[in-house]
């Protein structure tokens, strides 16, 4: 560790040493501002130096600090930096970059200590360190996976050992890079080499492809390293590839391709050498470097913004003095970039909204298509009337409206507006969010003066006015924005829109995010769908670069690509992020973006699987508590289930040297207990609404088990994939629910038979085996006819229906045991069914399957004499006393019913009456309502003395099941 | 018809076991009034039979004309309406139900449905029985809230309604309820009584009972009369005539539990635990109540354990059973118990045999 630190200091000092001469030399060369000396020194605190001051001075510093972007940096930052490394590193191992920033400034000029610094957390100075930090943390993580010894490894590894916090957040947080550690081998010498710091742009223009396992770097680290130094990393070898980075030739496709193309191979050491070389040659090479880099940045920097500044200052000394005063005082507000302070304070997204179609990033073909559609619209539809319907257009322009779809922020609205503007249409934008509810639905009604009603008028009036006033009126286009949000507020919005499209005499452009949304299903048919794709990161980076230049920001392309990637193609978000960052810093680097967006990445949805992966992962032990809570709270219902399902699969890294598995077993026992705790807490939460306990629940159901058992996952069953399974509880629970329902039916039937009055539980636990034997044994052992007769008789005694028969066999089936019906010849089964159905005609049904709930779940049972499905109006109720209805009446009733609620089946099979009266009462949910119908009840008039059995089926089941599930 | 049902005594006079209880009940009822009753005792001891016979004694044969209803009650619980489905068995004079079926919503059943039923005095006022009877099964499974709401109902409507509560364990019924009832303990029948009953059935069925066979069934039944009769009949179905050493088949699920136990004893590893979890799920989805699984697990484990571990294992079983009732997802607790056992047993094995 100390070695490393020494190394660092040395390198910095070296840098300093070199820098000083450079410094002295440069300033003279640099035609910096007159104020520069004073400012530079005093302004340590001012984050926002205009870049011009420093442009010159910076070079020396850049050299020292390999990380720094060559662009203008504040001079003062450089000086302190030499000292900084020592102080900050020693003192602030755990601290954030912000602190690092502080240190140098303190060292430099005590007056500078300004609270404002914090705002600037990412300002130039911090950067180099940051990058190191990031790297380290990654590294640490990686190391952890490998061997605990690592910390002394490369670079600053030592820090991690002394300050465990080093690994916090970053490594585990954003990238998921190590989640799949199982798939790739770890680098053999992970963390054992020093990772060089080179000139920031030493790899600019080079494209790398990484193949196989590197010697000491994880692939992600290597990518990071390359990107940080300005290189590009691509996935596959092509002509443009400069190097194939690999330490072992694994004969893969990449190496084959590389050989074919003659791409040079580069080992990891070679890469390090390249980077190191850039440092040593920097004194001389710096300028070159700088130039190359500055091509991008400095031109812009020096150019527009600064010039403006310069002019300003020279012109109006007051302004200048103000500015300088500000800077000197290090006012709490960071001075805006001059550019901004002078110019408009527009949001960048507005400011740089494309003005012409060519500015639009990506989707150019769609833009053209839209353009064509719009430009032909009038000819096509307005002339229609005149020319007669003669020609059917078969080209896509034949639709009267277009539907632009695509994810947010990729420029749909902009495209629509720009195209309209270009073609001279007047765009009327109806933003569904402001007009929704009141207006949209009124479009078709067109009653009176609201915003959108005027649109309605617009739509229809234009049709009248077209021919006459065509020339006078500017052409209009209706842009319906956010149509997929429309039906949320008002019903029928989409239908109205469609109606509008049909009658419209102006083009309508609809915009939505999700074209496949259910709501838009009908709309799609009337529109020409144009599906916007996300622009590639290169496209975005290019545009972002232009903007950055215009704003006087210094950014390199890799950084912007990273930004583009992080925002998932959302240009608007990218711009917002960029603008936000520009408030606090001037020079934006790859690492800034990476770090900045790491924190925002958290807000993304984490799938429960990812969360569980992270909790159980190797780095699970290093997560901060709040991170763990965040992870397990990402889905407080699913995560615990996943944890419970998978915790057995992890070989805890906490149990070392656990030969006999004893430690692991006791850890599992503890985890299992904790999971059970979680269940208990959960009951309190749900049943007694003690929501304040939800963190407790998280803790015991997810975090503690994960903390105990996190480690490497292993498979328990052969052939299992080594990924977390989905929680089995949900499935089992619903099976249980189903079986309970079946058992309930059986129980009801048996109760209704009046032969037994045992409870449901007793029925299952004690009766069931005997019932099973009584039902299946004869079939196996006795001659067919006799057996069938006996079984059917038994079933009748207990009112067991055939479904119940199945329930019984189902419930007494255990995995790994023969099923109860095994060995019964199919012929016998068939005979049984036949005999059963046969006898059902003359069977007195005692089963009152009173179940009332309507539901599609179960097919009605044949067994039951009457099956009624409740119609919405409600069903009659059938009482034993009430039934003296003739069969004819019944059937007519039945027909009525069938008419009323189609699909209802009534079936009557009851003929016999038994002396034992069983009264079955059907109670329908809507009993009360249907009082009028009471006599109707579809009943099965069983003429006898109040002995009737009817059952009503169908109705009840689904709600029954629902009810149960609730439980 | 199954023998259990066929030979179930229908009247108090015909009781074979618990004649004394039956006689006392008879006297109680004949005095025209009876207090609330709480029957408790292990399953298979004859509580239900006693209750049914008692009802018959009170209301005559009309108590046997029962209709089964399964209906959905809509209950207005403050801001929302709750649908509760409940099966009831009712005659003109009594209603029997199992309020704990509603799970954690049992409170509403007690507060609304039972109160509603209790309020209505039966119309039949020919004379004496001016009350109706509510038979509530499995009262011990009622949640605490439900039991609290029950006690008010018991007092307030006692003029028109009698409650007969039936449960396995009186300790899970709150003190307040117990003190409002006449508690009737129904013991598990002794093995002798069971043998007597079996022989009675054997005689009626005209079966040849080898000597000692009834004794073996009785012993296996764990003093559960219903169980004894059921397995008696199972034996009959499987093999007749009986032989002296005929195997008495265990219940299907018991067999499965003992497989699980031998799995656990053979190996204690995460892998095995995982397999056991699958088997427990199998039992649960086959509607075996988790408490019964746990009890049986313990029983089987104890048979195979060394004496020194028995105490500890019992302790943990009780611990997890209690927690299981507090919780909702039984599998978690069963698994926790098994994991705990594995951990204990494994360390014991290693300590003993190295």
UniProtKB/TrEMBL annotation, chain A:
Regions of compositional bias (Basic and acidic residues) in chain numbering: 1-16, 54-71, 182-196, 285-294, 900-914
The protein's name in its UniProt record: Replication factor C subunit 1
Organism: Punica granatum
Keywords assigned: ATP-binding, DNA replication, Nucleotide-binding, Nucleus
GO molecular function: ATP binding; ATP hydrolysis activity; DNA binding; DNA clamp loader activity
Record has ATP-binding as a keyword: yes
Subcellular location, principal: nucleus
Quaternary organization: Heterotetramer of subunits RFC2, RFC3, RFC4 and RFC5 that can form a complex with RFC1.
TrEMBL record, chain B:
Positions in coiled-coil regions: none
InterPro entries cross-referenced by the UniProt entry: AAA+_ATPase (IPR003593), DNA_pol3_clamp-load_cplx_C (IPR008921), DNA_Rep/Repair_Clamp_Loader (IPR050238), P-loop_NTPase (IPR027417)
Main localization category: nucleus
Function of the protein: May be involved in DNA replication and thus regulate cell proliferation.
Molecular function via GO: DNA binding; DNA clamp loader activity
Complex formation: Heterotetramer of subunits RFC2, RFC3, RFC4 and RFC5 that can form a complex with RFC1.
Cell compartment(s), UniProt: Nucleus
UniProt family annotation: Belongs to the activator 1 small subunits family.
PANTHER family for the chain: REPLICATION FACTOR C / DNA POLYMERASE III GAMMA-TAU SUBUNIT, REPLICATION FACTOR C SUBUNIT 3
The name this protein goes by in its record: Uncharacterized protein
Keywords tagged on the record: DNA replication, Nucleus
SUPFAM superfamilies: P-loop containing nucleoside triphosphate hydrolases (SSF52540), post-AAA+ oligomerization domain-like (SSF48019)
GO cellular component, one term: nucleus
Top-rank taxon, per record: Eukaryota
Cross-referenced CDD domains: AAA (cd00009)
Matches recorded under SMART domains: AAA
Gene3D superfamilies: 1.10.8.60, 1.20.272.10, P-loop containing nucleotide triphosphate hydrolases (3.40.50.300)
Organism: Punica granatum (Pomegranate)
Biological processes per GO annotation: DNA repair; DNA strand elongation involved in DNA replication
């Amino acid at each position: 560790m100390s070695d490393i630190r020494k190394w660092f200091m040395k390198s910095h000092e070296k840098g300093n040493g070199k820098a000083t001469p450079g410094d002295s030399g440069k300033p003279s060369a640099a035609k910096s501002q007159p104020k520069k000396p004073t400012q530079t020194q005093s302004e340590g605190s001012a984050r926002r130096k205009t870049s011009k001051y420093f442009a010159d001075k910076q070079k020396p510093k850049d050299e020292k600090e390999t990380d720094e972007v060559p662009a203008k940096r504040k001079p003062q930052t450089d000086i302190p930096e030499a000292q900084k490394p020592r102080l900050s590193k020693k003192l602030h191992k755990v601290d954030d970059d912000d602190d690092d920033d502080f240190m140098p400034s303190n060292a430099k000029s005590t007056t500078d200590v300004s609270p404002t610094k914090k705002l600037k957390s990412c300002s130039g100075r911090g950067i180099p360190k940051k990058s190191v930090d990031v790297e380290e943390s990654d590294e640490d993580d990686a190391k952890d996976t490998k061997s605990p010894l690592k910390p002394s490894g490369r670079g600053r590894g030592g820090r991690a050992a002394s300050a465990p916090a080093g690994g916090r957040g970053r490594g585990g947080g954003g990238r998921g890079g190590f989640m799949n550690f199982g798939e790739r081998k770890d680098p053999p010498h992970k963390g054992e080499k020093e990772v060089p710091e080179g000139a920031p742009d030493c790899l600019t223009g080079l494209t790398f492809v990484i193949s196989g396992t590197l010697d000491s770097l994880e692939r992600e680290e290597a990518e990071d390293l390359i990107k940080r130094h300005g290189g590009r990393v691509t996935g596959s070898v092509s002509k443009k590839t400069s190097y194939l980075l690999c330490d072992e030739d694994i004969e893969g496709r990449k190496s084959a391709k590389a050989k074919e193309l003659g791409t040079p191979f580069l080992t990891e050491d070679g890469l390090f050498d390249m980077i190191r070389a850039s440092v040593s040659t920097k004194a001389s090479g710096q300028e070159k470097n700088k130039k190359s880099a500055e091509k991008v940045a400095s031109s812009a920097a020096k150019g527009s913004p600064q010039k403006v500044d310069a002019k300003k200052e020279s012109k109006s000394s007051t302004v200048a003095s103000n500015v300088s005063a500000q800077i000197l005082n290090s006012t709490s507000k960071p001075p805006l970039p001059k550019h901004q302070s002078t110019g408009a304070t527009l949001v960048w997204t507005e400011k740089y909204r494309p003005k012409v179609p060519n500015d639009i990033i990506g989707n150019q073909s769609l833009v053209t298509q839209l353009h064509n559609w719009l430009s032909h619209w009038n000819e096509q539809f307005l002339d229609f009337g005149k020319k007669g319907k003669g020609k059917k257009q078969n080209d896509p322009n034949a639709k009267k409206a277009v539907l632009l779809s695509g994810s947010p922020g990729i420029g749909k609205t902009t495209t629509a507006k720009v195209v309209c503007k270009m073609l001279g249409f007047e765009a009327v934008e109806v933003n569904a969010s402001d007009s929704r509810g009141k207006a949209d639905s009124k479009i078709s009604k067109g009653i009176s003066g609201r915003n959108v009603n005027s649109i309605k008028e617009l739509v229809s009036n234009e049709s009248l006015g077209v021919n006459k006033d065509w020339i006078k009126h500017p052409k209009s286009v209706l842009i319906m924005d956010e149509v997929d949000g429309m039906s949320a507020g008002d019903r029928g919005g989409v239908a109205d829109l469609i109606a509008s499209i049909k009658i419209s005499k102006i083009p309508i452009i609809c915009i939505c995010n999700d074209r496949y949304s259910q709501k838009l299903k009908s709309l799609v048919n009337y529109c020409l769908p144009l599906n916007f794709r996300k622009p590639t990161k290169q496209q975005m980076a290019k545009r972002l670069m232009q903007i950055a230049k215009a704003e006087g920001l210094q950014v390199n392309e890799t950084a912007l690509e990273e930004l583009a990637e992080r925002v998932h193609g959302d240009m608007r978000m990218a711009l917002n992020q960029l603008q936000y960052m520009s408030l606090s810093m001037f020079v934006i680097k790859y690492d800034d973006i990476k770090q900045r967006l790491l924190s925002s990445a958290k807000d993304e949805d984490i799938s429960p699987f990812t969360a569980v992966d992270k909790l159980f992962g190797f780095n699970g032990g290093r997560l901060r508590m709040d991170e763990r809570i965040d992870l397990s709270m990402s889905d407080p219902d699913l995560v615990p289930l996943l944890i419970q399902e998978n915790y057995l699969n992890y070989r805890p890294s906490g149990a070392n040297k656990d030969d006999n598995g004893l430690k692991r077993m006791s850890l599992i026992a503890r985890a299992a207990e904790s999971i059970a705790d979680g269940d208990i807490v959960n009951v309190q939460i749900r049943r007694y609404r003690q929501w304040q306990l939800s963190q407790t629940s998280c803790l015991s159901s997810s975090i503690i088990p994960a903390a105990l058992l996190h480690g490497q996952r292993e498979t328990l069953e052969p052939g299992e994939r080594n990924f977390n399974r989905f929680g089995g509880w949900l499935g089992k629970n619903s099976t249980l629910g189903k079986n309970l329902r079946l058992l309930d039916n059986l129980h009801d039937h048996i109760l209704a038979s009046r032969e037994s009055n045992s409870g449901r539980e007793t029925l299952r636990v004690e009766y069931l085996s005997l019932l099973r034997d009584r039902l299946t044994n004869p079939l196996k052992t006795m001659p067919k006819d006799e057996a069938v007769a006996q079984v059917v008789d038994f079933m009748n005694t207990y009112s067991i229906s055939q479904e119940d028969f199945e329930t019984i066999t189902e419930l007494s089936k255990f995995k790994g045991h023969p099923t109860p019906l095994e060995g019964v010849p199919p012929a016998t089964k068939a005979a049984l069914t036949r005999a059963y159905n046969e006898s059902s005609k003359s069977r007195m049904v005692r089963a009152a399957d009173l179940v009332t709930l309507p539901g599609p779940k179960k097919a009605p049972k044949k067994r039951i004499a009457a099956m009624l499905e409740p119609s919405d109006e409600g069903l009659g109720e059938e009482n034993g006393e009430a039934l003296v209805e003739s069969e004819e009446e019944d059937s007519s009733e039945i027909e009525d019913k069938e008419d009323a609620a189609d699909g209802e089946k009534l079936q009557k099979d009851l003929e016999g009456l038994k002396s034992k009266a069983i009264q079955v009462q059907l109670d329908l949910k809507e009993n009360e309502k249907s009082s009028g119908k009471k006599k109707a009840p579809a009943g099965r008039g069983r003429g006898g003395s109040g002995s009737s059995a009817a059952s009503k089926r169908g109705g009840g089941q689904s709600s029954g099941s629902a009810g149960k599930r609730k439980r | 018809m199954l023998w259990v049902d066929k030979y179930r005594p229908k009247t108090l006079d015909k009781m074979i076991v618990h004649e004394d209880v039956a006689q006392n009940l008879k006297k109680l009822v004949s005095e025209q009034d009876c207090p609330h009753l709480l029957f408790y005792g292990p399953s298979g001891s004859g509580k239900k039979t006693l209750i049914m016979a008692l009802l018959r004694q009170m209301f005559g044969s009309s108590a046997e004309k029962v209709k089964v209803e399964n209906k959905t009650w809509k209950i207005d619980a403050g801001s929302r309406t709750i649908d509760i489905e409940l099966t009831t068995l009712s005659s003109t004079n009594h209603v029997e139900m199992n309020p704990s079926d509603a799970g954690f919503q049992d409170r509403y059943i007690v507060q609304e449905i039972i109160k509603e039923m209790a309020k209505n005095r039966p119309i039949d006022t020919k004379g004496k029985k001016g009350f109706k009877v509510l038979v509530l099964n499995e009262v011990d499974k009622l949640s605490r809230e439900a039991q609290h709401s029950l006690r008010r109902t018991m007092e307030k409507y006692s003029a028109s309604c009698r409650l007969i509560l039936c449960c396995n364990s009186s300790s899970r019924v709150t003190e307040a309820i117990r003190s409002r009832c006449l508690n009737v303990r129904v013991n598990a029948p002794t093995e002798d009584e069971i043998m007597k009953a079996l022989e009675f059935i054997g005689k009626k069925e005209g079966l040849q009972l080898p000597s000692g066979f009834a004794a073996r069934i009785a012993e296996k039944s764990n003093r559960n009369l219903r169980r004894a009769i059921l397995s008696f009949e199972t034996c009959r179905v499987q093999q007749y005539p009986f032989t002296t050493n005929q195997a008495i088949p265990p219940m299907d699920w018991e067999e499965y539990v003992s497989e699980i136990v031998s799995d656990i004893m053979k190996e204690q590893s995460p892998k095995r635990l995982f397999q056991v979890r699958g088997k427990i799920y199998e039992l649960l989805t086959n509607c075996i109540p988790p408490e019964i699984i746990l009890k049986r697990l313990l029983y089987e484990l104890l048979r195979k354990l060394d004496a020194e571990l028995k105490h500890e294992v019992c302790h943990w079983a009780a611990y997890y059973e209690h927690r299981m009732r507090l919780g909702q997802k039984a599998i978690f607790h069963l698994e926790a118990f098994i994991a705990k056992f594995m951990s204990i047993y494994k360390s014991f094995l290693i300590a003993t045999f190295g």
